[in-house]
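Complex record, two chains
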Amino acid sequence: MQLALFWIFSILMLAFALGVVFLRNPVSSAMSLVMTFVALAAVFVTLDAFFIAVVQVLVYAGAVMVLFLFIIMLLDLRAEKHRKVRPSAWLGGGLVVGGFMAAISQVIAGWSALHQTKPELSDPSFNDVAGVGFTLFRDFNLPFQIIGVLLLVATVGVVLLSRKELK
Amino acid sequence: MIDPVFLEVSVVVLGIFLLMAEAFGLAKEKSTLAWWAIGGLAAVFIGTFFIGPNSNSFEVSGFYVVDGLSLFFKRFVLISTILVLVMSVDYLPIVQRLVPAERPGAGSGEFFILPVFTCAGLMWMVSATDFIMIFCALELVTISFYIQVAYLRRSMSSLEAGTKYLILGALSTGFLVYGITWFFGATGQTNLVAIREVLPLIPVANHPAILFGLALVLVALGFKIAAVPFQFWVPDVYQGAPTPVTAYLAVASKAAGFLVLIRVLEPFFTVPSFQNKLFLALVLLALLTLVFGNLAAIPQTNFKRLLGYSSIAHAGYLLMGLAAIGDAFAGGAVVFYLSGYLLMTFLAFLILVPVTKASGGDDIAHFNGLARRSPGLALAMLIAAASLAGVPFTVGFFGKFFIFEAAMNQGLYLLVLAGIVTVASGFYYYFKVIRAMYWQPAPEDAGPVAITKTSSVAIFILAMLILILGVYPQLLIGMLP
């Protein structure tokens, strides 16, 4: 059952990921990306990571992609439709992708954990929201604080770079 | 005694204070902010000499280490930031001309505040011993650099540089995170100390996974230190970014990148099966970087671009030192080289800013006749160029000498040969600047180059240090961790 679900959602995810790359209309690309995120969230659910799945849908498929779509529609990107892709770009991209795939498949083929099944949760009532919270605010407190500083800097930067006339 | 964690915290607090001071108009002149920042950072610098033992508190211990190396580099980063701020004060008129402002001076205060946050990020980076921590600190640094590179919004080349740096930086971050996930998958750890312990126990079948992760992390850090073939962003970004930011990128960002690289690679040098492959990769990277960086610098006519290629070339010598890390003194040689590199690169950029303001551009041709216009500046530039090329009696000579010595001891004869040949080509392209200053006539209407007091003091100190350390390097060697 779980394996079947994994394959269904993985194939969905990959199909829509290809759509992101190959569809010529930017809005269709963005919507394919939403579907990729949703399928990824489903895979997280099969791994019992409910909180991550919900966050994946809320933050990525929801907030981030809405922003994306807004910008695409505001900019009215038509040039993408008429863009010709040069053969040399095809060749270069193909080589990189092929090399990467070859490397990954070789790595995975030899991996000892390949045929392990997912271990069951030792405590089925485990609260993963609390778990993420404890990990984030207690175990990883210092990196978390650094991310706070990062967000402050990013906010300052957005104001600096996007205001028409700085006051 | 100060808890070392407070060093970064006080830098962040300083940054927030400056943001508030800017927002509420506490500083009448924008440059006042820079002086406050310099004062605050200098206080933190003094604080680094009164460090107590690392508080082994639960939140901090696994992520953050304070040893001789990280302390040395914290001071390195603080000095770099102070020099960047000194340079920025000089650069302020250009910023104010190229930032769209409603009233004069608006939007230029942050130019002095963002480096303070970058400084905190760099200080965390050099202390990081966990991949999560490395990632967070590195992102803080990179994101603040995106903003600083694109700061001059009316200059097309600055915007282009910002966009390029953003896209390629995001790509390299992707490589880094992907590499980290492979490490985590294969070892179950993100902590470098823990990885070092687990590494010998990993079954051989999983070694390709770790090597794959290592390759990805090497690519990502190769971007940060500008190693060939991950260098293609360097010339455009160095040329388009505001000059103080270029200097900051060239020195502090590269040095912190090298330290992270050393820390990440260290566990893998302890296991023989990884050691050989890693060694081969480093030799190859060093060779490519040396040859490409030096050859591509030869035809350059823009001084910032030339320094961009020269910074690639210097990354090649540093990688040579890293490949020779088995030698007892190789680590010290790399740190010595980086310290010398700080002195000479900042000297060159500190001179470039007033020359750009006086001559209206940063091509080598804008240095024409500088020896007649401002003999002192020309002499300082002569010292910087000689040191960058590695002429004896400058700190640059000893930097290269120690690296070559370590590489010879490790039997890397091919690399040393490539190093010597490329040093010769370095002589040629640094000499172009000297020729422009001493043998080309100055433009008709050109007078002496105006320079602020602080800049001239900084230039004098840096030039003297290059010469003193070029005769008596023990002074710096004694301070090495």
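Note: DSSP finds 20 helices and no strands in chain B.
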